[in-house]
Amino acid sequence: MMTRHWPSRRHAGLLLLVLTACGGPARPGVRAGDLLLTDGFAYAPLDSAVGAAYVTIHNAGMAPDTLLDLSSPIAEGVMVHGGDMAGMGPAVVGAHDSLVFTPGGAHLMLMNLSALPKAGDSLALTLRFARAGTVTVRLPVRPYGTE
Ligand SMILES: [Cu+2]
């Protein structure tokens, strides 16, 4: 009877170790010049009309940079939207500042999709900046609406 508790406790300990390892200080990201792109993901689109993508852009440089253009091979176009879904002008990342695209806030809208990636897939997103140039990130696709 007593020994039955053993295995489950051991498993709990192992799980904790794994979680700790994943939450380490190393923050994966894609670098482009002074910019570091992190926390990128997309929601699995519900239909081919639109899809939403998110990324955080950190600018470690002394000068602001501007996001001029976006594209994805599976979208006819990619737009910057404000939290109210209205199109925004060129998005600026201030010096030593971050530009955060996040659910409920400003986001990247993929229009007229030629494919419908599912949760677990990834999709390519190319961003062109005035200073840092062009960078492509692969965004993991999450189930629609999840954090
Ligand atoms: Cu939108």
Task: Provide a brief overview of the structure.
It is built from one helix and ten strands; from the N terminus they run αββββββββββ. It is mainly β and 147 residues long. The structure holds copper (II) ion.
What labels describe this entry?
10 strands; 147 residues; mainly beta; Immunoglobulin-like; binds copper (II) ion; 10-stranded mixed β-sheet; 1 helix; disordered N terminus
Measured by DSSP, the beta-strand proportion falls in: over 45%
* SS elements, strand count: 10
Tally of structural domains: 1
What's the CATH topology label?
Answer: Immunoglobulin-like
Low-confidence runs (pLDDT<50, min 5 residues)? 1-25
Radius of gyration: 19 Å
Structure description:
The chain is built from one helix and ten strands; from the N terminus they run αββββββββββ. The chain has about 150 residues and is mostly beta strands. It has a single domain (about 25-140), classed as PCu(A)C copper chaperone (Immunoglobulin-like), CATH 2.60.40. Strands 1, 2, 3, 4, 5, 6, 7, 8, 9 and 10 form a ten-stranded mixed beta sheet that branches. Strand 1 (about 30) and strand 2 (about 35-45) form a beta hairpin. The site of copper (II) ion has 4 residues, from strand 8.
Topology:
Blueprint lengths: L4 H18 L7 E3 L2 E9 L6 E10 L5 E7 L3 E7 L9 E3 L3 E4 L6 E7 L8 E8 L3 E10 L5
Parallel strand pairs: 2-10
Antiparallel strand pairs: 1-2, 2-3, 3-7, 3-8, 4-6, 4-9, 5-8, 9-10
